[in-house]
Amino acid sequence: MELILAILFGVVCGSIPAVVGAIMEELEVGMIGFVASSVSALFFGLYGAIPVCTLFALYILRHSRTKRFTRTRMGEVIPFPIEKARRATGLS
Predict the structure, then answer these.
(1) Which residues cross the membrane (predicted)?
(2) Coil, strand or helix: which one is 26?
(3) 18-42, pLDDT tens digit by residue?
(4) Which of the residues 1, 14, 69, 85 could staple to 37 if both were Cys, CB 3.0 to 4.6 A apart?
(5) How much is the pTM?
């Protein structure tokens, strides 16, 4: 019975980094957080699942925020008309 509760705690706590990762476009890290939280819940119970869940969720939030405002990412978000004009005229 304790093993079933540990798996349940791990899945519930692991779903938090998975959902945060899916929302912030960091699904790979979210799935790693899900697995790590589930495994730590098997070994340490709720005392292991909650810190791992929190750390992965904070890492995803911090990493996605820094990735969002890099120079190359900003060029994808804001299309510059001068680039469209150069491509249309063939001037590189």
Answers:
(1) 31-61
(2) coil
(3) 999 999 888 899 999 999 999 999 9
(4) 14
(5) 0.70
The count of structural domains within the chain is 1
The structure tokens 């120079």 sit at: 71
Cβ proximity of 41 and 54 under 8 Å:
no
The number of C-alpha atoms within 13 Å of 28 and in the hemisphere containing its C-beta is 2
Taking every pair of Cα atoms in the chain, the longest distance, rounded to a whole number of angstroms, is: 71
Residue 59, pLDDT score? 94
Instruction: Return the amino acid letter for 76.
Output: E
CB neighbour burial string for 59-75, b if at least 16 within 10 angstroms, e if fewer: bbeeebeeeeeeeeeee
Where in the sequence is the domain holding 74, given as residue range(s)? 2-89
Residue 80 is encoded by which pair of tokens? 């510059």
**For the CA atoms of 10, 15, 16, 21, what is the dihedral angle to 10 degrees?**
130
Helix (H) or strand (E) holding 92: none
Which residues lie below 8 Å from residue 28, measured CB to CB, with a gap of 6+?
21
